[in-house]
Amino acid sequence: MNIDPRPLYTRATEQIAALVATVRPEQLAGPTPCAEFDVRTLLSHIAGGTRRIAVVGAGGDGMVVRPFLDGVEDDRWSAAYDEVRTEVQKSWADDARLDALVTVPWGEAPGRIALSGYVMEAVTHTWDLSESLGRPLALDPELAEFALGIARRVLPDERRDDEELPFDSAVPAPEGADAYGRLAAYLGRRPLS
To answer: How far apart are CA 119 and CA 22, in angstroms?
Structure first.
């Protein structure tokens, strides 16, 4: 895989930012397709994961970065996310970072592979958040198709019994599911309704 995932990652973060901007305070305690997260915790994880890949892009040890962003006031999620996604753009600006070996939660990989994995994560959590908020915005299908391709490459086994893996075994996609629905099902997620 020799693509530059930065434009896709930027588009994914723009989409998340637009979605985060729709979150109302009364939705923060609501459920998400990630049973262990409410909307507030999901936002914290989205922002924390984004900070982690920013540190990785800057040549730092992302594994020491907690994948949650704590202490964000309820009315500051949009600003907090914008700050961390700006960090990612700066830290991955140098083309050399794409071929540098980096360490991410699933192991050591060239930067382009690691960032592609974070595209998959960002797009998956976009679906999670969208489902939680009642699907307030149309989502970019090209991003979901890319993320699904990455998921199939890095998680080919339909049964995922590893407790460390944050994805359940694949479930059947609902009939007529769009690319996001197929991605979610492949990663073991089910719609809230």
So the answer is: 21
Task: Check: pTM over 0.70? Answer yes or no.
Answer: yes
Read off the tokens for 12.
């994914």
pLDDT of amino acid 157: 67
Question: How distant, in Å, are the alpha carbons of 2, 40, 44, 50, 192 from that of 68?
Answer: 30, 11, 5, 9, 23
Q: What is the pLDDT at residue 113?
A: 95
Q: How far is CA 158 from the centre of its chain?
A: 20
Biggest alpha carbon distance in the chain?
A: 44
Q: Give counts: helices (H), strands (E), the chain.
A: 6, 2
| Mean pLDDT to the nearest integer, 73-100 | 97
Beta strands in 60-137 (DSSP E): 101-104, 107-110
